[in-house]
Amino acid sequence: MTSIQTILIAFCLLLCILASVAFRSRLGCRLLAIFFFLVAATFVVFPNATTVIANYLGVGRGTDLLLYIGLLAGIHAVLLLYLRTRKLEQQITEQVRAIALRDARRLGGN
Asked: Do 81 and 89 touch, CB atoms closer than 8 A?
């Protein structure tokens, strides 16, 4: 095992631990983080495995396959964050409206 493989595996393990701490109450997310760690560690230890999988799927190189997967995962993450932000904005708007109506009733009643 080369030094870069050791560094990459250590980095993946650190990310897995951080994800596990961040998703402390969600078992599914923790298991998904562990799964991604195991896949990443496997691809680090056996780098030709990505090329074999890519060739099976009709992609020329393993690097291209990882790029495509990373691009799709990034787009998915951005969409999830956008939807979460929209939901939070709607909740804040509802709270502000409720407070404004409550204050208007209270001030109008005096």
From this structure: no
Contact yes or no for 51/61 (Cβ under 8 A): yes
Whole-angstrom Cα distance, residue 68 to residue 3? 27
Burial class (CB in 10 A: 0-12, 13-18, 19+), 33: buried
Per-residue pLDDT of the chain (110 residues; tens, 9 = 90+): 788 888 988 888 888 888 778 777 677 877 887 888 888 888 888 888 889 999 999 988 988 888 998 899 899 989 999 999 999 999 999 999 999 999 988 887 65
Helix count and strand count (H, E) for the chain: 4, 0
What pTM did the predictor assign?
Answer: 0.69
* Rg over CA atoms, the chain: 23
